[in-house]
Amino acid sequence: MERIGDTMKRVVKAPTFAARYEELRNEVMESPGVQQFLADHAADVDKNVVDRSLTKLYDYASASHDCEKCPNLGGCVNLLKGFEPKLVLTRGLIDVEYVKCKSKLVDENNRNVARMIDSYYMPKDVMEAKLQNIDMFFDDSRVRIVRVAKDFLNAFDETGELPERGMYIYGPFGIGKSFILGALANELANRRIRTVAVYVPEFLREMKQSIQDQSLNEKIDFVKNAQVLMLDDIGAETMSAWTRDEVLGTILQFRMAEKLPTFFTSNFSYEELEHHLTYTQRGEKEAVKAARIMERIRMISSPLQLDGENRRGK
Description:
single chain, alpha/beta, 14 helices, 8 strands, 52% helix, disordered N terminus
């Protein structure tokens, strides 16, 4: 029986194997990445090292680099999806190590950005809004509000500190108030600022239910401690004395004391919202308590009126 070593020598010396080996070697050596690596390590790499490392070089040369062969991250053609090989020298031989490709990095960044926004009952399209997508033609009020939003972002970029005062955007139904908040939330997320966006009517309704499962304090604490809080459509709810004073009042008092930026949208102006807060769902008139809530809102926000047509019906 022929020894294994002799068999291997005979196979390797066979004309077809030798031809295939030379073809493979030429294919590898045509790779720009391989050529650059060999040029950069000319003092440490010779023909013997190349021959002994041919398998690793082939793995590198046949892979997609800089996502050139991949339609997207899901369609990555590499052995490890989202990773591309990089040539390295290890113990006198050429080896590969795998690093994240640009598509993988973009995907991870997008996921990290998304995790910086927590929303309660906010529409998906609102939370995907971008400032550059806000239509500002022939609308001075929209231009003014976007400018104020950018001033808020610029102040953070310049100082590393969030401004203490947010915006109170008010105007008719369906003109894009919430969209502006969503766009600002995404800009903040890109800066790794965590935002909690809350659709107020549903949130207050949930707070009533949370008394039964004893999660009320936990939910209030989560909202009131947000780096940036956005309260959407305040005034659209049927307000009880309890939700006004124990939920909304508690949140606003904490944020005023801690100087945490808070943003609002509403169909009501300050004066109209105060009137709304004055009368509870039982018809009780409590002007002093409503004024106390409004004092906190005025301390932590600046009123900005938004004009325009109702776009939801279009």
